[in-house]
């Protein structure tokens, strides 16, 4: 691709002082000693994948060079991550904002009047529809890419796990344990399948990568996803999904139902029939899983294809560069 000028990328994890000035530094050190190095999830993973894609394209960039912005205020700032970064960007700077920003525009509905926001990027179409209700005409879809070289099938690996359950259920946990997880587990037990479970937030990245080589299939339990990076990583590795996709309202308890009632949402924004089978709730687990498992055994699914076609780190990085050129200064 035509490399063009370097992009000005800005990304920082929010880590404010909690009890006294500068206490974030000893707290960070203690966390590392107790838990090991922080795992790159969510926003950080998306940023790292963008950078990896830019590297593969040979596209130059700078990271957190605030001094350059102060000296060249007409240049576009690509602000990737939480909005606290905006406080460090000079006021008149044009901004490409996103992805992984506000949970909802109601957190700051007046933002387009406060800053020169050229465009807001969100990971999928349902999020775009939700955001445009507050910021009309300002929101574009840009998903982060998946490293299809790292997340790839390994024909030499022993498939010693029939079903990996990826459990990301946080809200209404007790309810879904009874109505969803229990009937699912009963069906897997009835079939005598070898099962392993990962709970979101309690595993290390290398565990999921290892299981992507060993698992024949994955059950994906998430109420809704803006993109669903873990699901896409497993698809890239050739692992078909049995995906819970209840639809309905966006149910973040901070906003729902008092502030925001938006529907429909989905747990798998990037999906077609090659990926696997979806089910709606505990009442259709058994018949849906029967169809799914026959497809797994027959080799019906081709989950990697959708990621290779649309969502490699190179393709998504190239799309990001195009957006930066499009919405940057004339």
What does this structure look like?
- With 330 residues, the protein is α/β, with parallel strands linked by helices.
- The chain has 2 domains: 7-145 and 312-327, no CATH class; 161-310, 3-Layer(aba) Sandwich (Rossmann fold), CATH 3.40.50.
- It is built from 11 helices and 11 strands.
- β9, α8 and β10 form a beta-alpha-beta unit.
- The longest helix has 19 residues, at 173-191.
Q: Secondary-structure element sequence?
A: EHHEHEEHEHEEHEHEHEEHHH
Q: Which whole number gives the mean pLDDT?
A: 91
Q: What is the overall silhouette?
A: globular
Name the structural class: alpha/beta
Number of helices: 11
Number of domains: 2
Largest sheet: 6 strands, parallel
Distance between the termini: 20 Å
Number of strands: 11
Q: Ranges with pLDDT <50 over ≥5 residues?
A: 21-35
Percent range for β-strand residues: 15-25%
Helical amount: 25-40%
C-alpha Rg, in Å?
Answer: 21 Å
The spatial strand order of the largest sheet comes to 2-1-3-4-5-6
């Amino acid at each position: 691709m035509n490399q063009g000028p370097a992009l000005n990328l800005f990304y920082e994890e929010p880590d404010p002082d909690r009890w006294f000035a500068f206490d974030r530094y000893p707290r960070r050190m203690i966390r590392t000693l107790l838990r090991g190095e922080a795992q790159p999830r969510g926003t950080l993973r998306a940023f790292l994948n963008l950078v990896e894609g830019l590297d593969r394209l040979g596209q130059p960039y700078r990271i957190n060079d605030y001094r350059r912005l102060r000296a060249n205020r007409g240049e576009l700032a690509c602000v990737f991550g939480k909005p606290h970064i905006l406080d460090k960007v000079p006021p008149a700077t044009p901004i490409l904002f996103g992805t992984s920003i506000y949970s909802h525009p109601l957190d700051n509905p007046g933002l387009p009047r406060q800053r020169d926001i050229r465009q807001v990027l969100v990971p999928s179409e349902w999020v775009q529809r939700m955001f445009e209700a507050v910021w009309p005409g300002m929101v574009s879809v840009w998903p982060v890419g998946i490293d299809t070289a790292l997340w790839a099938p390994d024909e030499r690996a022993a498939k010693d796990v029939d079903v990996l359950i990826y459990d990301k259920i946080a809200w209404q946990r007790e309810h879904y344990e009874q109505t969803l997880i229990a009937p699912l587990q009963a069906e897997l037990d009835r079939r005598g399948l070898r099962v392993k479970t990962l709970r979101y937030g309690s595993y290390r990245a290398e565990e999921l990568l290892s299981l992507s080589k060993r698992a024949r299939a994955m059950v994906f339990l998430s109420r809704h996803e803006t993109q669903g990076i873990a699901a896409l990583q497993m698809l890239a590795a050739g692992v078909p999904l049995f995906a819970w996709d209840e639809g309905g309202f966006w149910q973040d308890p901070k906003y729902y139902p008092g502030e925001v009632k938006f529907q429909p949402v989905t747990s798998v924004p990037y999906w077609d029939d090659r990926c696997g089978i979806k089910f709606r709730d505990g009442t259709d687990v058994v018949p849906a899983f029967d169809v799914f498992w026959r497809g797994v055994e027959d080799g019906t699914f081709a989950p990697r294809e959708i990621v290779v076609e649309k969502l490699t780190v190179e393709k998504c990085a190239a799309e990001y560069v195009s957006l930066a050129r499009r919405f940057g200064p004339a």
